[in-house]
Design a protein that fits this description.
Layout (H helix, E strand, L loop, with lengths): L10 H13 L6 E4 L6 H10 L8 E5 L8 H6 E2 L11 E2 L1 H4 L4 E5 L6 H13 L1 E2 L8 E2 L3 E6 L3 H7 L4 H7 L2 E4 L9 H16 L6 E2 L1 H9 L5 H15 L4 E2 L6 H10 L13 H10 L17 H19 L4 H8 L3 H10 L6 H4 L1
Parallel strand pairs: 1-8, 1-9, 2-5, 5-8, 10-11
Antiparallel strand pairs: 3-4, 6-7
Helix pairs in contact: 8-10, 9-11, 10-13, 13-14, 14-15
Length: 353
């Protein structure tokens, strides 16, 4: 599957694309920094797929998602019997990426003990499997990414200085959406087109008032927040265009502030039933009545639509941050990831972060 392109005509995006073009032809290690949701994995994939390693493996790993007790085994593999549960030999991510690119997302989340082993593997271009005695040599390009301030982490002693400079041969910064003047409309319209291929019924456009509101918003969740918002608006829309009243309250308030008008008081309710009733009254989510006179009802589809609507609303309110959205819904982080995956809503950093 081809990697999505970086969409935009702003000065910030054009500068980013120019830098990608310069570094793609080399095998130098790179560090991609930027806020959550700015497309750091998309940048890494574009560099890989437009350079000399394009026909080699691209192996992404989220360093923050692997339990500390398992991360060494995931990175370097293990020998059979090396620990309880190691019933067979396993290839690690470094070995799987041999000849290609290993993308270390959220590299700032690595524990110090693993940072030492990672530094050695990068310096020596070799490693040992857990429980193994033989060095395995690899030729891997490292692209690391983080939304953390690694220089501050180095100063605090939570990130190794030698590893930081080993990764930071070339630094690439992905700009936040608020710095990409003129790109919000392009992105919103592109996401709307993508939704059209996924849903049987889809609005064909945003009206001008809605677009102006999108441009007024600060977008703390960046591209991921915008994409989630578009999907939510499509789900709630009943006409041919998406209007201002179908956008989240925070976006509507941004539009009011931009015009010097007072905003609506924050809507806070812990009563799920009251929240659902209010949403129905606004046309946000209307469930079919339990009328079986005309035949059976597709219960699974009905419940999936309701679940999708609440997930999208929570993600939009949380700026695309899954952990915050899970808290809003009273579920665990693991549960929201499972639900998003089940409904086909789990996205890459490109559109994810």
């Amino acid at each position: 599957m081809a990697t999505r392109k970086i969409i935009g005509e702003s000065t910030a995006v054009l500068s980013l694309l120019k830098l990608i073009g310069k570094v793609a032809g080399s095998k130098t290690n790179l560090l991609v920094i930027g806020e959550s949701g700015t497309g750091k994995e998309l940048v890494a994939r574009m560099i890989h797929e437009t350079g000399p390693l394009k026909d080699k493996p691209f192996i992404p790993v989220n360093c923050g998602a692997i339990p500390e007790t398992l991360i060494e085994s995931e990175m370097f593999g293990h020998k059979r019997g090396s620990f309880t549960g190691a019933i067979s030999e396993k290839m690690g991510l470094f070995e799987a990426a041999h000849g290609g690119t290993l993308f270390l997302d959220e590299v700032g989340e690595l524990p110090l003990s693993m940072q030492v082993k990672l530094l050695r593997a990068i310096q020596e271009r070799s490693f040992r499997k857990v429980g193994g005695n033989d060095d395995i040599r690899v030729d891997v390009r490292i692209i690391a990414a983080t939304n953390r301030d690694l220089e501050a982490a180095v100063a605090k002693g939570t990130f190794r200085e030698d590893l930081y400079y080993r990764l930071n041969v070339i630094l690439i910064r992905t700009p936040p959406l608020r710095e990409r003047e003129g790109d919000i409309r392009l992105l919103a319209e592109q996401f709307l087109k993508r939704c059209a291929t996924r849903f049987k019924r889809c609005p064909s456009r945003f009206d001008e008032e809605a677009l102006a509101a999108l441009e007024s918003h600060e977008w703390p969740g960046n591209i991921r927040e915008l994409e989630n918002l578009v999907e939510r608006a499509v789900t709630l829309s009943t006409g041919d265009s998406i209007t201002l009243d179908q956008l989240p309250q925070g976006v509507q308030d941004a539009a009011l502030r931009a015009r010097g008008l007072p905003t609506h008081p924050a809507r806070r309710s812990t009563d799920v039933a009251a929240t659902a009733a209010a949403a129905q009254a606004q046309g946000a989510l209307v469930l079919p009545a339990a009328d079986f006179s005309k035949g059976p009802l597709p219960l699974d589809e009905i419940l999936a639509d309701a679940e999708r609507s609440y997930l999208l609303a929570a993600l939009a309110h949380a700026g695309g941050v899954k952990k915050k959205a899970a808290e809003l819904l009273g579920i665990t982080f693991r549960s929201i990831r499972y639900r998003l995956s089940k409904l086909g809503m789990e996205k890459d950093d490109a559109s994810e972060e």
